[in-house]
Amino acid sequence: MANHKSALKRHRQSLVRNSRNNMVRTRIKNVVKEVHSAVDLKDTELAATALRKATSILDAAATKKVIHARAASRRISRLHAAVNKMA
């Protein structure tokens, strides 16, 4: 690691951003699991609410550039397809 004052600051910033991004990615995984479990239970109401929540979180992550915008769009599309297939 570099010893310059600016390099040390950049390192501190990267650690903060890394931890924040990890939290967002974990949250994405959890909400996607909620949608899939609701689909497995064939609970349309629970699946719809979980889908709305997942869509919101995935869009926010894409806006913050935690995940790529197309990756978020693809995941949302697949979740919608799974929920619509159930109904």
UniProtKB/TrEMBL annotation:
Keywords attached to this entry: Ribonucleoprotein, Ribosomal protein, RNA-binding, rRNA-binding
Pfam families (alphabetical): Ribosomal_S20p
Keyword Protein transport carried by entry: no
GO aspect biological process, one term: translation
Keyword Ribosomal protein belongs to the record: yes
Residue stretches of biased makeup (Basic residues): 1-14
Assigned GO CC terms: cytosol; small ribosomal subunit
Region of interest: Disordered: 1-22
GO MF: small ribosomal subunit rRNA binding; structural constituent of ribosome
Family to which the UniProt record says this protein belongs: Belongs to the bacterial ribosomal protein bS20 family.
Annotated function: Binds directly to 16S ribosomal RNA.
Protein's name in the database: Small ribosomal subunit protein bS20
Organism: Maridesulfovibrio ferrireducens
The gene coding this protein: rpsT
